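Workshop exercise sheet. Pairs work together: one partner reads the sequence aloud, the other fills in the structure field after running the prediction. Swap roles for the next sheet.
Pair: D.N. / O.F.
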Amino acid sequence: MLQWAKRPVAAVLALGFAASAWAAEPPSGTVIYGIHHEKYGDVGTHKLTFSQSGEDLMVEVRNKMKVKLLFVTLFSYKADRRELWRDGKMVSYRSRTDDDGTDIAASAELKGGKLVIEGPDGSAEAPLGVFPTNPWNSKIVEQSLLMDTKTGALLKVKIDAAGEDTVEARGKSFKARKYVISGDMERELWFAEDGTWLQMRFDSDGSAVTFTLK
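Structure field:
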């Protein structure tokens, strides 16, 4: 059975790299990322929908993946998630995932100045301001603790700037800043100069899985 979608998915800003425009002016509307598997080709989409209400920013996430060989479905994955942000901090979270037939739920609520997380492994507390592993906000590169979007597990990470790069997205080339995440989660991230998340890549059983802005 394929395992790549079942792994946890998902540094200080380098000198001269602009802080996220999204951190100052929250996005609106819908943004879609294509998901490409090195072996199986295009396997799905990662859709983000942003809506602003006063000081609150709601981020709705829909992730759909399916791996087929001829007429046989080898793997399927669907997730619906909601992040509520206020003053640049996530204050509420809901997630429901169908991971190849296994239902997984996770949530987080602000209580007593902390986020109380409920997931398949039980309860945990995280400091207010913890970021989910969904990297739409480029301030994720400043974090050392992340919350796994599928299970709610807390992940200790180290995030290092890895220089400038070029990313092909939306039919053109973007000058990008690359970051490498290590520790409890391993992944590569690319952000445009204005902080827009352009691309993410991680390894799955020796094959690269890449999310790219469409």
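Discussion prompt: The CA atoms of residues 152 and 168 lie 32 Å apart. What would you look at next?
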